[in-house]
Q: What sequence folds into this?
């Protein structure tokens, strides 16, 4: 039945190869199980519920991808989007997480609705390659900065804002141990290097007393009730989060399209330069995002880590089904995940304005290496920027640096769009800039100019 449903013979695949590919993809992306509860926990969400919803919505969305598009692609909460949700929207803008979930849900509905109008394709075509690449790179730098903060590798400094942390502290030692293990394994092209690095850091954490004894490794999944159906759609619309909804939609669109194209090229699925069943794949992603918001989680995207499964021979949705099944199995290991992804509080005295101030910092040294490494992978997008053309490179540069310097993804995108439209306009190269970019640039200028919109 599986052979006929997923056309294994036509794809030149076998059940055994697809199973191996599915396991490989799971091992490569399973770090999200540990990272997602830690990230959304900083936004005040119940970590146990986030763990359960992460496993459930990943399995659900990946099954959709398998059945609708027959691709060996897993769909899970996006790295970068989760930080935008927690640090920019909830913490930075002081938006309740329930309202932020409402914004995620609306962005998912827009993603679904635009399927019939080819608006998604128009937006993809409108945004120049330099800005697409710089957005990915900027998010990568922001994620890296957060990872280094979580690791204790950088610290708050009153004079310079940020400085090197205490490398002899327990959190830093644990994080560095995991980071070294991860990068060595990645250099040797070991599948699942990020996950193995997390486990190595966890062992170091146990030895240094940072990881608490979970008491048990296997248990029933935590209740999803604290986050399920808690989204506030009315609040998201009434509080004027249009820009936030747009950013969620924008990031989801480009992450998924970019990942699908990259994976399809590697798997040999492209036909005459086009991706068959691309609409179905995008629809599966969009439905996954709406389901994720309902369950109490962030935007879902196709994971580029699926490329590891493709490298192992995955060619059909059977590989995706195997990956989805393993995420369901992971539901029963919540005590272990909770012990690894939990924070470690450290009391420190810092100087602010010449005065000593006692502060409590919460570190996440076990999962921080994953963030640093993922950031290093995302920064590779800068190679696709035309650095010899100032009208392309300056907007890209501003996009990249504004994100980590302001701790805000939206501001990075805004500065990139505004400067790109301005430079094309003043150099007489108006036609090189799509009218949608001019429109978005004007809206961003309005956002900064009118009090209350920023």
A:
């Amino acid at each position: 039945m599986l052979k006929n449903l997923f056309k294994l013979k036509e794809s030149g695949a076998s059940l055994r190869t697809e199973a191996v590919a599915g396991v490989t993809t799971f091992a490569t992306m399973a770090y999200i199980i540990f990272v997602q509860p830690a990230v959304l926990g900083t936004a005040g969400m119940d970590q146990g519920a986030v763990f359960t919803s992460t496993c459930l919505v990943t399995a659900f969305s990946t099954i959709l991808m398998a059945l609708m598009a027959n691709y060996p692609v897993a769909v899970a909460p996006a790295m970068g989007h989760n930080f935008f949700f927690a640090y920019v929207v909830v913490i930075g803008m002081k938006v309740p997480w329930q309202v932020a979930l409402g914004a995620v849900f609306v962005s998912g509905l827009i993603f679904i609705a635009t399927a019939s109008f080819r608006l998604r394709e128009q937006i993809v075509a409108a945004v120049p390659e330099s800005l697409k690449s710089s957005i990915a790179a900027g998010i990568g730098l922001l994620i890296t900065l957060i990872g280094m903060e979580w690791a204790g590798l950088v610290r708050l400094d009153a004079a310079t804002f940020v400085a090197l942390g205490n490398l002899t502290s327990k959190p830093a030692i644990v994080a560095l141990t995991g980071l070294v293990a991860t990068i060595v394994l990645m250099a040797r092209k070991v599948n699942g290097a990020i996950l193995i690095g997390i486990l190595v850091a966890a062992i170091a954490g146990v030895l240094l007393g940072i990881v608490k004894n979970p008491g048990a490794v296997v248990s029933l999944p935590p209740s999803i009730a604290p986050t399920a159906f808690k989204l506030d759609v009315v609040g998201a619309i009434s509080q004027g989060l249009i820009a936030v909804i747009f950013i969620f939609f924008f990031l989801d669109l480009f992450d998924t399209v970019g990942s699908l194209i990259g994976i399809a090229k590697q798997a040999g699925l492209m036909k005459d330069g086009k991706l068959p069943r691309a609409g179905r794949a995008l629809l599966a992603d969009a439905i996954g995002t709406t389901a994720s918001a309902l369950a109490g989680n962030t935007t879902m995207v196709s994971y580029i880590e699926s490329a590891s499964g493709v490298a192992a021979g995955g060619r059909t949705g059977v590989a995706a089904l195997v990956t989805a099944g393993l995420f369901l199995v992971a539901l029963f290991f919540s005590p272990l995940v909770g012990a690894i992804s939990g924070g470690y509080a450290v009391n420190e005295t810092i100087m602010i304005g010449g005065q000593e101030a006692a502060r409590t910092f919460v570190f996440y040294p076990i999962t921080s290496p994953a963030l640093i490494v993922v950031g290093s992978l995302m920064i590779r997008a800068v190679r696709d920027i035309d650095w010899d053309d100032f009208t392309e490179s300056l907007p890209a540069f501003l996009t990249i640096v504004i994100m980590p310097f302001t701790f805000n993804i939206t501001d990075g995108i805004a500065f990139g769009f505004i400067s790109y439209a301005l430079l094309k306009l003043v150099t007489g190269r108006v036609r090189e800039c799509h009218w949608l970019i001019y429109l978005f640039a004007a809206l961003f200028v309005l956002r900064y100019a009118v009090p209350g919109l920023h």
